[in-house]
């Protein structure tokens, strides 16, 4: 299907404003060929806008975008050789699965004798060839997602763009689909940019992640690097259950914090406690759940011990 000669994506000094509102501010990134790269951030951070800039949708930004060795900043979407899967899937409701997937080839005037073979191969790859005669309304959400993927990869794009593709699925199906997307991406060896606001989704699927907030690129790295070595408070807080303490407070220099359990959540393999150590400061503590061992109750007096080797100083 897709070429194994995947392209890099290079973004240089990219900025974009709507009227007087800056939505992207000087983004510099390099995405390696064959990499599964994620734009991660909260709502309004600029991640989907950045993806649409790569795709060629919307106003032309300042700066440069290169796919492979070719600058595409001013090219329309159909000349960039990228494939995009939208959050809504955007399937044609009146067409069968087969016709939805074949549509892109027909628009590109691929020889009619070649189309059935390529459609079958694409639907086989996503496990839907037996459903080729159904319409989208007869499919589950996960099956519709696979049709959208098959329709995109069949035109052999150099770069695959996925804009919050799992947000319409329930929790269990999201886990299944992200594994299937990862397996498909590895099989195709296709440079892929994935957009999500879900930290767990980003951590489980990505080679590297770019964390954005308010249109600014905060940090780029592997999931483990970002979690272990955040560069600022925003990244630390957004990527996990970080405990952020004001180092200017002399009380925070201690390594043992007496307090009371203020809240308890049972998470299956973990119990998460919120421990109030003073009027203004609470700590999150995850403890492994073990059958038969008594859990702390709300109101219990406890002491939270901190290993200073795991403490990091953040500048902002």
UniProtKB/TrEMBL annotation:
Protein name: Spermidine/putrescine import ATP-binding protein PotA
Gene Ontology CC: one annotated term: ATP-binding cassette (ABC) transporter complex
UniProt entry tagged with the keyword Disulfide bond: no
Species: Geodia barretti (Barrett's horny sponge)
Keywords, comma-separated and alphabetical: ATP-binding, Nucleotide-binding, Transport
GO MF terms held by the record: ATP binding; ATP hydrolysis activity; transmembrane transporter activity
SMART domains xref list: AAA
Protein origin, superkingdom: Eukaryota
Signal peptide per UniProt: none
Sequence ranges assigned to domain ABC transporter in this UniProt record: 9-239
PANTHER family in UniProt: SPERMIDINE/PUTRESCINE IMPORT ATP-BINDING PROTEIN POTA, SPERMIDINE_PUTRESCINE IMPORT ATP-BINDING PROTEIN POTA
Cytoplasm is among the record's keywords: no
